[in-house]
Structures
1.
Amino acid sequence: MDSLASASAEPEASIEYFDSIVGRGVRLRIGERSYIDCASGTFNLSLGYSNRQVIDALHAQLERASHLSSEFTRAKSEQVFRLLKPFLPEHIGAFWFRDITGSTANECAIRIAQKATGRTDVVSLFLSHHGQSAAATALSGNAFRQRSFSLPFAGSVKIPAPDCANCFYRQSPDSCGMLCARRLDDFVEFASSGRVAALLIEPVLGNGGNLVPPAGYYGVLREVCDRHGILVIADEVQTGFGRTGTFFASTGIAADLRPDIITFAKGAGGIGIPAAGVVMRPELDVLEPWEHSSTSGANPLSLVAMEETVRHIRDHGVLEGVTRTSAVVEAGLRALEDRFSCVRNARGVGLMRAFDLPTPQDVARFITVARDEGLILRGSRYGFGTAVKVRPPLIVTEDEAHEIVDRLTSALIRFEKDEDPR
Ligand SMILES: Cc1ncc(COP(=O)(O)O)c(C=O)c1O
């Protein structure tokens, strides 16, 4: 951890710097400079920095009561679930809104799956990220966050991810027969305790490199899970609330997954208000109130933020906007791939996009150059570390989407000339 002395030595760490930061829409103004935030904050600003509808509703709630125990917020939770219901797969009919982080929402889903099935094990994927609580870290498919700790999750089984550019089985998508999904059979038989409760999966592997599985993947996985009586938990912490162009990936690109349980967080709070939730088949509504909750679970500010976020997405054509603007970003990234030899593997869905640069060092340098061009971008320590993620808030306009592509182009020209603004 930074010591106070070393932290204050950095100009960026000063209170004046912090106080100078103002977010408006998709832009962040820091001192005299303005940036388009293509990281959507911590990938949680679905509606950008300053959505008036959410802010006004929060102010009104703050005036009434900033906190209420879940005893008093049940009706609000039900109202939010009713608002969400039309955007969920039809078979989802129950909810558990006692979380404000994706990590604990995933832990809640695991508890539900274990209690409902009477089984223990959880299958997850290489390259996955499910959060940073002890269980969520243990189930995530990367060593770097576990290395310094002992975080065992008895019954964790990891299977190769559908990462076609780096196929674990050294196959190609046209002839692989979807081995990465089919071989789940073998993992259940030879790598688990034989008592697998659930498969936990991100419909698009976000931190692992923005990996979109090939067509047919979700259906094969579902079929194998059905054969073994394994529940499917879709971790929609990144993909939920409109990010992939449908409200949930589970009603769009990942519909064939037919998840039994869906978790969400991040974008659910609209402007970054911590909010999370678990929704499920009605027969999986098995938890007692004391079996999964926390001090801030079901707090009124989170519920109000979630309510207004759903309303705003529904009433302001946000999903249709994502369809339009994602087409601009997609075409722009493909053009960059054609023009710059260092840009590879442009990929993604909706406003969840990425491309690769040759090395993690290139990614770090490019992000610095792009910052100088007025773009906030993030890479990923996960996987191969070569992804540059392009994920603006869902309210980005077509003009702003073009501006993003123009700034990426300028940054790549400078990057190829080997410029480093530091
Ligand atoms: C797919 C996914 N699941 C779970 C989490 C954990 O969410 P939180 O950081 O709110 O605990 C994250 C966070 O990055 C995530 O990307």
Note: The longest strand covers residues 94-99.
2.
Amino acid sequence: MLSLPRLPVPPPRLTGHDVDTGAGAGRGSRARAVLRRREQLHTLSDLRPKSQTRPLFLPAGVDRASRDGPVGPKPGCRAGRRPVTGSGVGRGEECVPGGDAALCWTGEILVPELAYVNGVITPLEEARVSVEDRGFQFADGIYEVAKIFDGKLIDLDRHLARLENSARMLELPLPMPLPELGRTCRDLHARSGIEDGVFYLQVTRGACPRVHAAPPGLEPTLVMTTRRLSRPLPEKITAITVPNNRWKMCACKAIALLPTVLAKHAAVKAGVNEAIFVGDDGLVLEGASDNVFCVKDGVLHTPPADGRILEGITRGRVLELAEERGIEVRVAPLPLDEFRAADEVFLTSSVLTVVPVVALDGRPVGDGRPGPVSTVLREAYWDFMRRFRDVTDSPNPSGSSSPA
Ligand SMILES: Cc1ncc(COP(=O)(O)O)c(C=O)c1O
């Protein structure tokens, strides 16, 4: 008889069945069981010499000082990152992916990009949702994107308050009360150990056989991911204007983003960084994924949050910072011809922060360089992020986190 070579036994894979705690078990206990199990299973022993067996996931609340070490790829690692030098307030690190782009070195430990799906935390590339999920079938869901800066989740409470508002607009149930959702976000971020990156959260109405009207009693699907910034942020950008072909509920941060995708494609085709939506009435609304501001004769202008735009968290902070600095602000409908004649234009978003637009529709804005008001507000926003302290578990989500 032919003797077959003995194959190595693969490491155990974790699935929902492995950890199901039985009928009636809540999502919380199941999630805890999954986490305990994963922490036991995933050690660095398969990636590093046998003598080094630190957990792949950082325990929540790990001490940064004891964790941080010299930055740079270590011998034998499969991915790395290198500092990117540049002028201005933006700074970053470039990912230098090797065999495993989801794992990057930061000092002494690997920083994994993580995903959370309904209570199960996995490396990002292993995360899965059902093809029957209504997010996949109908874009029936909402989302939030928060910045991770200096190890902090910037303005998470304001993002969660907006998520709650989006959910209310679509009569979409959230998977857990807001304070618990906040704790779950912070726990995932702490486990990832990511210092600078993007936190993504999405809630869909759940999975069911494909039928437009959702049956009652669906369990919402909650997905969260933590990702590192793969490129340094731009210090200035270029833009075009495009017709606004979006729906009428733009105050809701819905995952149905096809007009945004097409606008971004138009920008790429035009060789610029961003597209700015202009209504049929000639009013400037917002960027495809950011809010717009312009400056004329020292006065800061931005369109109102009247339902035709998303009320950006960064926009709100920038308006507060402008007021604190005595900059005159006019929140009012913004005609395209006034916008084009502005001395300065800039965009705001959680990921981009505050970024000047130096060319619009192929023509320079002002003298084609970032203007003084944009620069002051960009510096002010970065200063705000540096001073930001996250106050967790507040009963009042919209006002709990603040600069120290
Ligand atoms: C259409 C739109 N407007 C504005 C923003 C900026 O919002 P925030 O500052 O909360 O990131 C975004 C962000 O994704 C967006 O998609």
Note: Residues 372-387 form the longest helix (16 residues).
